TrEMBL record:
Pfam families for this protein: ABM
PANTHER family assigned: ABM DOMAIN-CONTAINING PROTEIN, QUINOL MONOOXYGENASE YGIN-RELATED
Classification via Gene3D superfamilies: 3.30.70.100
Species name: Hymenobacter coccineus
Superkingdom of this protein's organism: Bacteria
UniProt xrefs under InterPro entries: ABM_dom, AI-2_Isomerase_LsrG, Dimeric_a/b-barrel
Residue ranges of coiled coil: none
Protein name according to UniProt: ABM domain-containing protein
Residue stretches making up the ABM domain: 5-93
GO terms assigned for molecular function: catalytic activity
């Protein structure tokens, strides 16, 4: 049985790009949540560092994540993100050790 895949991604906006990045992520998150294989997709903003965003994603398996990466929404987001991000987006891939 394949294990669910969990990802925490962190994206920081360039100065002056905070609102644009927030809007892009809000719109994309709504689309991502409807994808087959997406178990959960949450968008968060750092309270102490506005313009720093984290996503918490849960995918059914690696195939679902791979399909997500090929969607038109992801393809369109790439060039926009390049203009908005301050540095590289980071992604941490997680496995569940205990869930109560």
């Amino acid at each position: 049985m394949p294990e669910d895949l969990y990802i925490v991604a962190t994206l920081s906006a360039k100065p002056g790009q905070e609102d644009a990045l927030r809007d892009l992520l809000l719109t994309a998150t709504k689309t991502f949540r409807q994808e087959d294989g997406c178990l959960s997709y949450a968008l968060h903003e750092d309270l102490k560092r506005p313009g720093r965003f984290m996503t918490y994603e849960a995918w059914r398996d690696e195939a679902a994540l791979a399909a997500h990466m090929q969607t038109p929404t992801m393809a369109a987001a790439g060039p926009q993100l390049e203009k908005m991000l301050d540095g590289e987006m980071t992604q941490d891939f997680l496995k569940t050790l205990l869930s109560l």
